[in-house]
Structure formats: structure tokens, C-alpha cells
Amino acid sequence: MKKEELPQDKSALEAMTRELLYVKNQDGKYTTGLSTGWEVKKDALDNAWDDIHERVEKAREDVRNGIKSPVYYFMELKLMDFPVLSAYTGFWGFTIKRHMKPRIFEKLSDRKLGKYAKAFEISIEELKNFKG
Amino acid sequence: MEKEFKHIQAAHCENGATTSLLRYHGLDFITEPLAFGMGSGIFYLHIPFLTISNGPAITYRSMPGWIFNRTCRALGIGVKHKKFSDEIVAQKYLDDILLKGAPVGCQVGVFNLPYFPPEYRFHFNAHNLIVFGKEDGQYLISDPVMETVTSLSEEDMLKVRFAKGPLAPKGHIYFPETVGDVSTEMIKKGIQAGIKRSVREMLYIPGSIGGVSGIKYTSGQIRKWRDKLGPRKAGLYLAQIVRMQEEIGTGGGGFRYIYAAFLEQAANYINQEKLMEVSEDFTRSGDLWRESAIQMGRIYKGRINNEQKDFEVCADLLEEISAIEKQAFIKLKKMKL
Prior knowledge:
Chain A is mainly alpha-helical. Helix content of chain A is about 55%, strand content about 10%.
């Protein structure tokens, strides 16, 4: 890619920095150039966030309809998956899966709820009282 | 004597951390492309049947930490690495080193990195930054992908150093401990070793999922996704590929341009004109990686109006890239360095 072809599109990264890329100068030698963003990447990122928002909404509905416990909702909200949540709480993946059942969630001790609350950076009350 | 730390912006965080740390210790010749090439940062692996954040599991780079380690080893530099199980111990260790005045590299998670835009904060734990001092309880930070320096509070620093999940940093700190004189001969040997290692890793990983054959494998998968996953999910998969491939200097096009720049710089140390020819091959490959991203973008942006033939175009591009890079690495293998 030539230096003058470096895209200067809008992107979320703009708030933080321009990114550096290796590009060719007019003599065909490598140099570096700065870019504010590239539309193709912005679309990919937007796409990922659309998907995340949909997943979070779906999780909210599942909690509201009594299909899933708040653990599931906050896991999605905090962009976690089982390995990440498992690492933050110390629970095994299958234990977390159990805790996502509303009837089992209701009987969880405050100590266990506390681990989730800490991982999600919310209070135990917020976790317990989330109704969707 | 107090040496001053100089912030250097890089395309890729680990290259940048390596370059800044070595420059601080007086290795003025080191550049990001040289670190990337000597450290054999270029790599490819598509792990089948595994998904990460609901997308294909592809890595474009060698294991975190390897670029720094390999480059330092090639230049005869002693390296200190330390991980911690206790946060208080980790903080004290960092503070004590900073009192001595030398900058250190830290592996961090980006989910809680306050100066990253929220849109970029995923649970990705292999980001690298340099801490070069502490003033009024704030750590002075040189983040290699940023234009300027920044800072982090003690609390935020602990959070990002102890992010959890895959590739958890566990407070990982690293820095050059003993730096001797580096001869031109050592640089030359380092370049040769780096190229050889990349040839091995890109051409001769057994099976069909690593190196240049891995790129072909991904191409084959893309041809099947639309039927297997449906248009929407297949589009999401492509978007994830583009994100991993092109984000902040990593992966596809970005890495090829750095590698092409590396070969160009290598020609300053090694008298071999064909290096420039292969550098051109990687520039071409980089251009094609970007073209494939544009093509994938057309699909995920349209979302519903994607057709099998559009996926075929992406797949064809990756196949072409695989072939070009295969030839390029074969040329490097045969080259007398």
C-alpha cells in the first residue's frame, strides 16, 4: 500500500489515537504513516457490537421470562464467555451453567453470589434483583 | 546517569514494546520491522472445531512474549520475566523496579484499560505496554500503539495486570536485564535465524491448519460457511476475521507490510538483492489481505444480501495469498543469506 492510499476514515479509535501502519513512499521504500481509521474495520466492529447488543437483549428477555438467571444476562452484558467467567469466579463451567437456571440461582448463598457480583462489578442486590 | 525514556509508536504492541525497551538500553539500530523479523512474529494457525467469541479461532501471530524473547536472545540480551499470584507483591515489585529508573514491559488485559475506547474493550489479555515511571501515585505509560504517552492509576494498573481468562497476564513483567555490546555480525545472524524460523513455521508445520496451508484451510472453510451456518452467521464470522486480521496493526495486511519492511531493512545487513524481490511479494500479499477484508466487508455490511459467489471471491483471494506466501517463503528458504 502506498502512503497516499492510507485510509483516513472515521472510527472509534479516533478518540484515543491514530494508528501507525507501514506503507510505501514515492521512491517505493517502506516508511510509516498514520491513519484515523478504515471503514472496512469500522463496519466489522459495528457488526460485532450489533451482535453483542442482540445477545444482551435476548438474555434480558430470557431472564424476564424465567428461562435464565441473571448470571446469564450479566455474563453477556460484560462480554464474557464461560472460560472468562469461570476464571473470574473460580466456578467450573458446568457449575455456572447450573447457576443460570433460575430455580438454582434463587437458592445460591450470598458467598457464591458475591463471587459473581465481584466478577460483574455490581452489588449482590443488583444481581439478585435483576428481573430483565 | 539518568537516561530518558523515549516513547515510540508502533503498528503492533509487542514489536513496539521490544523496540522501545531495547532503544532505551542503547540499541539505536533496532526498529519495529527488525524486531518483528528477528522475533519471527509472522505466523498463522486456524484451529478447527473451536470458536472464540462466537467466531472462528484463527491466530495470526506467534505466542505472546515470543517476539521479545527471541529478539533479545538473538542479540545476546539477558531477559527478566516475572509473573505473580499475589497482587500486592506484584505492585511492590513494579514500584521497586521503577525506583531504579528503568522502563519495564507489562502484559495487560484491555477490558479494563480506561484509555481504550469502549468499543475496543474486549476480554483480550495479550496487550503490551511500557511503564516508565510513577508520579503522584500514577503510573506513566507508553502504550506502543498510541501516538502519545498516557497514565494509569494504581487501581486500574492492578486490574489490567490481573485480568483473567485465556492468556491471563498474571501480573507479567519483563525487561532486558543485561545488555552487552551488539555487533553487526550478531544482528546479521539474528536476521538469518529469524527468517529461517519463519520459513519453518510457515511452510513445515505438519497438517493443513498452520502456516501457508492454514490460510488455504481457512479459504476452504469460507466456501462452506454459508451453507453450514446460514448467511447471517457466516457474515458474522467474516466480520470477526477482519477484526482480528486488521485491528491495530495485527494479522493480515498490517503484518505483511511490516514483514516486507523487515526484508527491506535486512538487505542493509545482508548482501542479497533477492531480499528486495521477496519484500515485494509480501507487499503484494499485504495488498491482497486488505482486498480480502474489503470483500468480506461487502458481505457483512449487506448482511442479508450475501450470496455464495461472494464468499467464493473471499476464498479465492485467501487461496491466492496462500500461494504467493508459499512461493515467497520457498524463495527465502533457497536464498543464500
